[in-house]
Specification:
This protein is mainly α. About 60% of the residues lie in helices and about 0% in strands. The protein is built from 33 helices and five strands. Helix 4 packs antiparallel against helix 5. Strands 3-5-4 form a three-stranded antiparallel β-sheet. Strands 1-2 form a two-stranded antiparallel sheet.
């Protein structure tokens, strides 16, 4: 295959036709990109040019051009002009009738707004598009390869701190991944075009140059030539010589995925987050403190593993880490003169490389297993507060940790021996919130606890993690590094400044997932920022009510009000909420717990039903746990359905509430389903299957179907 820039798109003839027919010159870069991508996507070329269709127009404008074409304002404005002129050219060739021509022109007009949005979207930047935009901003002739090369040389010699920063919220890993995926997609399109040429070339002739059938290894030669064409196209649509420079002499300016090892750790963080919450947009709590930018270099340089790597005195294990993070090597310039952000990324690379090589912590008989990535995520997820090695193991084996202590910060001792020692039974009782721990309990967790401590100690060599005795956690450097890694994984990890800008609804929605103390602190901070007034507390209470009524997956009112109580919600604000149809009963309950007197009839029935349905659902959970344990003890491995759970505590609780409910049991059933369709489902199922009063059971069955329809409508 003779190396050539030419693809058989009819570009030059088309430009000549437009100039003759319209008396105007179209931008060559824009025209070339539009025609080439239409042809690569399989457009017919019987008219001598690629013939657009509405579907192809949308694909090329919305998917192909935004990550491939770097266009100035005039070139961008020319895209719909090129497509409209192309439609006219195809019609002139007798390949479009009036109706289809009008439909095609309308499709172009409809696709343009989304095209402009996609072209401006930072997430569509590749390295070539990024540097082409800088070249354009600096007034460099992008068609002059020598000028482009000189500009890149000047950029590479520039101090790191003076180089243009990527637009928010992008990281180097985003451009590395996007560049890789876009090149793969372009190469795949070229290969498909080659296959079409081979099967049955268009009457206009093959799109691509002739295949290298005479090569010694034609498959390898074909791959190489398609890569060459992809590089040439990239240069034509961005800047001359740019692709070769960024993959050669100036590769350090455009690292690929393999040069950003912390991107793989970021993928693990996304997986962990989705396992926990199912949605990457659920925000994690920010660390209480991270280093100032001018402190990062000192912290990184003082950490044992980074310092050893930078010295170049490497054993076999260190050499493995060195090769992954490029220190010493490509990252040496960052080590000595990088910006705070670059140093943070280097610290993330070292942490990722170290985490990759560490063994998982595994319980007896593989009862549980978690790796270093999970350890790092779990530390950040708890607000970067310290955890306990022993408590982490007990939590992993589901062996008795009081709920209020699961996310509680572990105390950090002033000093402790370097070697790990499992806490005594007395210390375990306090750590776990479970009195009466024995030496047997201690011995059972001793081996896995020591295994976890060993992994933590290896992570601590990076400067991102610490362990003092049984307590371990993220250092300030580690908190900053992990926030960077987590955001690279496109998980919501706001900083303190972002949290401070949230309104009441955003604050309430976020903190429902956070450890109780951190949630309470965030709620109190919101009120402080808004003058500490009852009005500010009222905004939070209103946001809780809205969340509880609008979101089927919202937390229970008891959980929200536990956070508000710890945050210090005043009695006056609670009294103002008593009449709320959703949260009034929860407000009354909290007032009663403070010794206040509030008559029950001051609370709307809907709010009372909201609290009752949560209580009854908890009774169902309690009954289910007892039932499952009984089945396990008897060797029954089947999975019970909701209606199979004997309502040992649920029925008495329901009957007691029904006795005091206006209208009795059937009215209460209706109120429960109306107040909270999602939470009521299991309760209604159980009442339908087990309540001895068949009238009540029948109403429960009907209301369960109604609740399901309501939830389906919400979705």
């Amino acid at each position: 295959m003779t190396r050539t820039n030419a693809l058989n798109t009819g570009r030059d003839d088309f430009l000549t036709w437009v100039s003759r027919e319209r008396g105007a010159a179209l931008p060559v870069r824009t025209t070339d990109a539009v025609l080439t991508m239409l042809a690569l996507r399989g457009a017919e070329r019987r008219a001598g040019v690629p013939e657009p269709t509405p579907q192809l127009v949308r694909q090329v404008l919305h998917e192909d051009l935004p990550p491939m074409l770097s266009a100035g304002d005039e070139e961008l404005d020319a895209v719909p002009v090129v497509l409209t002129a192309l439609a006219d050219r195809v019609r002139a060739a007798g390949r479009l009738n009036t109706k289809r021509h009008a439909k095609l022109v309308a499709a172009v007009e409809e696709a343009v707004p989304e095209f402009r949005r996609a072209m401006a979207d930072p997430l569509n930047l590749t390295w070539s598009r990024w540097y082409a935009s800088l070249l354009r901003a600096d007034g460099v002739d992008r068609d002059d390869a020598d000028a482009v090369r000189a500009w890149l040389d000047a950029l590479a010699s520039m101090p790191h701190a003076d180089r243009p920063a990527l637009p928010e919220p992008l990281h180097r890993s985003d451009l590395a991944d996007r560049t890789f995926s876009v090149r793969a997609r372009l190469t795949e399109a070229l290969l498909e075009a080659f296959a079409r040429d081979t099967r049955a070339a268009s009457p206009a002739g093959p799109l691509l140059p002739a295949p290298p059938l005479d090569a010694d290894r034609p498959d390898d030669a074909l791959t190489g030539e398609l890569d060459h064409i992809a590089a040439e196209l990239t240069d034509r649509w961005t800047a001359a010589g740019l692709d070769g420079a960024l993959t050669g002499r100036h590769a350090s300016l455009a690292p690929g995925p393999e040069a950003v090892p912390h991107a793989s750790l970021a993928d693990h963080m996304l997986d962990e987050h989705l396992d926990y919450y199912g949605d990457s947009a659920v925000p994690l709590p920010p660390p209480a403190a991270v280093p100032a930018p001018d402190e990062i270099q000192g912290l990184l340089h003082s950490a044992p593993l980074p310092a050893a790597l930078a010295s170049g005195d490497l054993d076999d294990e260190l050499r493995e880490v060195s090769e992954r993070c490029g220190l010493p090597g490509p990252a040496s310039d960052v080590w000595t003169g990088g910006t705070p952000q670059e140093l943070l990324e280097l610290a993330a690379d070292i942490l990722a490389a170290q985490a990759e090589r560490l063994p998982p912590v595994t319980g007896p008989d593989d009862a549980y297993s978690f790796d270093a990535a999970h350890i790092l995520y779990s530390l950040y997820e708890r607000g970067s507060t310290p955890d306990s090695v022993a408590r982490k193991i007990c939590d992993a084996k589901d062996d008795g940790v009081a709920p209020e202590l699961e996310d509680a910060p572990a105390p950090v001792p002033g000093s402790a021996p370097d070697a790990y020692e499992t806490p005594s039974p007395e210390e375990l009782s306090v750590l776990l919130g479970m009195p009466g721990r024995t030496e047997e309990d201690r011995e059972e967790i001793d081996a896995p606890a020591k295994g976890l401590a060993a992994v933590v100690d290896q992570l601590a060599l990076t400067g991102c993690v610490f362990r003092t005795g049984d307590t371990f956690g993220l250092t300030p450097l580690g908190a900053a590094v992990m926030r960077h890694v987590i955001t690279v994984g496109h998980v919501a990890a706001p900083d303190q400044e972002t949290v401070a800008g949230w309104n009441a609804a955003q604050t309430v929605a976020a903190v429902r997932h956070w450890p109780t103390q951190l949630a309470a602190s965030a709620l109190a901070a919101f009120v402080d920022r808004h003058g500490g007034t009852d009005q500010a507390w009222g905004e939070l209470l209103a946001a809780v009510a809205a969340a509880r009524s609008e979101d089927a997956n919202a937390a229970r009112t008891a959980e929200y009000f536990a956070q508000l109580d710890l945050a210090g919600v005043p009695t006056t604000a609670l009294r103002a909420a008593i009449g709320d149809p959703v949260t009034g009963a929860a407000a009354r309950r909290l007032l009663l717990s403070r010794g206040e007197s509030v008559p029950e009839d001051a609370v709307p029935l809907g709010a009372r039903a909201t609290v009752l349905v949560e209580e009854l659902d908890q009774r169902w959970i309690d009954d289910m746990l007892v039932h499952v344990k009984r089945r396990d003890d008897s060797g029954d491995t089947g999975i019970p359905g909701p209606a199979d759970i004997p309502p040992t505590t649920l029925l008495p609780a329901f009957d007691e509430a029904a006795a005091a409910w206006p209208g009795g049991a059937t009215a209460l059933v209706e109120a429960l389903a109306s107040a909270d369709p999602a939470t009521s489902l299991r309760v209604l199922d159980s009442l339908h299957s087990h309540h001895p009063d068949r009238a009540v059971a029948a109403v429960a069955g009907r209301k369960r179907k109604s609740a399901q329809r309501t939830l389906s409508g919400r979705r």
